[in-house]
TrEMBL record:
Pyrophosphatase that catalyzes the hydrolysis of nucleoside triphosphates to their monophosphate derivatives, with a high preference for the non-canonical purine nucleotides XTP (xanthosine triphosphate), dITP (deoxyinosine triphosphate) and ITP. Seems to function as a house-cleaning enzyme that removes non-canonical purine nucleotides from the nucleotide pool, thus preventing their incorporation into DNA/RNA and avoiding chromosomal lesions. The active site is at D65 (proton acceptor). Binds 1 Mg(2+) ion per subunit. This is dITP/XTP pyrophosphatase. Its EC number is 3.6.1.66. It catalyses: dITP + H2O = dIMP + diphosphate + H(+); ITP + H2O = IMP + diphosphate + H(+); XTP + H2O = XMP + diphosphate + H(+). Substrate binds at T7, H8, N9, Q10, K11, K12, S66, F148, G149, Y150, D151, K169, H174, R175. It is an enzyme of class 3 (hydrolase). Keywords: Hydrolase, Magnesium, Metal-binding, Nucleotide metabolism, Nucleotide-binding. Homodimer. It comes from Caproiciproducens faecalis. Mg(2+) binds at E36, D65. InterPro entries: dITP/XTP_pyrophosphatase, ITPase-like_fam, RdgB/HAM1. Its cofactor is Mg(2+).
C-alpha cells in the first residue's frame, strides 16, 4: 500500500522512510501543504496533518508530531518544540534558548523525554494512531554532529542522539518506537481486512 507522508522536514522524512522501509511500508511522496498545528497534544497535531493530507490527495496519509518535554520546564517546549525560539529560528537557536532556560538546573534535575505521535488517516475516514517515548537528560552543551533538532543536547546512556549512528538512534528513539507500534497496528488492520 502506498502512503503519503505529511511533513515539510526533509530530515524527519528521511528518518521516517528509513524506519518504515524494513517494515515494508512505502511512502509515495511528501505532502507539503502547510497545516496549522492548533492541537494541544502531539496526537492532535499528527491527526490534523494526516487528515489534511489524506483529504487533499485521496491517499492514506501518515504524519508524525513530536517534540521534547523537559521536566524542569514543566514539559516545555512540548508541542511548541519546533517554534520554541520563534518561527524562523534554527535548530541552534532553539538549542541555545533551551540551554539558557536550564543554565541553573543541576545535572540530576535535567531529565527529559522525546515524544512522537504517529497518525495515519485512510480515505474511508478510519485511522491508526501510535505513540513512542524515549527518556533521557539534557546536556550542558551540544555534543555530536549527527541528527537534527534537539539531538545534540539529548543524552541517553551518556551519549547524545547526535553521537549515535542512524541505526542506533532508530532502535531507541521515540519515533522508532512509535513507527514500530504503528507498523504492528497496520499489519493487524491488513489481516482483519483480508
Amino acid at each position: 500500500m502506498k502512503f503519503v507522508m505529511a511533513t515539510h522536514n526533509q530530515k524527519k522524512l528521511d528518518e521516517l522512510e528509513r524506519i518504515l522501509m524494513p517494515l515494508h511500508i512505502s511512502v509515495s511522496a511528501p505532502y507539503l501543504l502547510e497545516v496549522e498545528e492548533t492541537g494541544t497534544t502531539f496526537a492532535e497535531n499528527a491527526f490534523l496533518k494526516a487528515d489534511s493530507a489524506c483529504r487533499e490527495t485521496g491517499l492514506p496519509a501518515v504524519a508524525d508530531d513530536s517534540g521534547l518535554m523537559v521536566d524542569a520546564l514543566n514539559g516545555a517546549p512540548g508541542v511548541y518544540s519546533a517554534r520554541y525560539a520563534g518561527e524562523d529560528a534554527t535548530d541552534l537557536d532553539r538549542i541555545h534558548k533551551l540551554l539558557d532556560a536550564l543554565k541553573d538546573v543541576p545535572e540530576e534535575k535535567r531529565t527529559a523525554k522525546f515524544v512522537s505521535a504517529i497518525c495515519c488517516v485512510f480515505p474511508d475516514g478510519s485511522q491508526i494512531t501510535a505513540q513512542g517515548e524515549c527518556a533521557g537528560t539534557i546536556a550542558f552543551a551540544p555534543e555530536g554532529e549527527g541528527g537534527f533538532g534537539y539531538d545534540p543536547i539529548f543524552l541517553v546512556n551518556g551519549r547524545s542522539f547526535a553521537q549515535l549512528t542512524a541505526e542506533e538512534k532508530d532502535e531507541i528513539s521515540h519515533r522508532g518506537r512509535a513507527l514500530r507500534a504503528f507498523a504492528e497496528k497496520l499489519q493487524h488492520r491488513k489481516e482483519q481486512n483480508g
